[in-house]
Amino acid sequence: MIRLTALNPEEVTGKTKDLFNAVQAKLGVVPNMMRTMGNSPAVLEGYLNLSGALSHGKLSAKTGELLALAISEENACDYCLAAHTFIGEKLVKADPAVLHAARTGNSTDAKTEAILQFAKTLVSKNGLVNDVDVNNVKDAGVSDAELAETVGHVALNILTNYFNNTANTEIDFPAVQSLALQN
What we know:
- By secondary structure, the protein is mainly α.
- The chain is built from 10 helices and no strands.
- Helix 3 (41-54) packs antiparallel against helix 9, helix 7 runs antiparallel to helix 8 (131-139) and helix 7 crosses helix 9.
């Protein structure tokens, strides 16, 4: 059951209308998550601003999508798993096997795997990582800037995961179910 209403872009006004117009201009569509976030323009604007800022960082778009999948798997967010699998395949052009491996924090690239594993550690420890956790990711060649951005991606994806799990947002991408829910 959908718990929060996805707003119709044709019926909104004010700040929500402005934000929807910006999303429409960039993506060609206003996905259900953003339509639902539009109930609070502050939440939608915060999400868009952090997402936009991270897109200009040191971590590539592909790494961002892999992080989103690893974090979304940790939080069993089927909406985000579907969205980021679609984006990863269609926009970032990542191999489906690479995307699937990221869901468990794995990669054939050691640095990427260290980033994904650190993100999973952040989630599982509620951000209370220790020196060993940080040193492990740094030993894999991850810079301070990349480490900071990894934390930013975790925060962004926890926001979307928790939001979609709370709202039970209707999935408007090809469905992908959490591995934990498949067992």
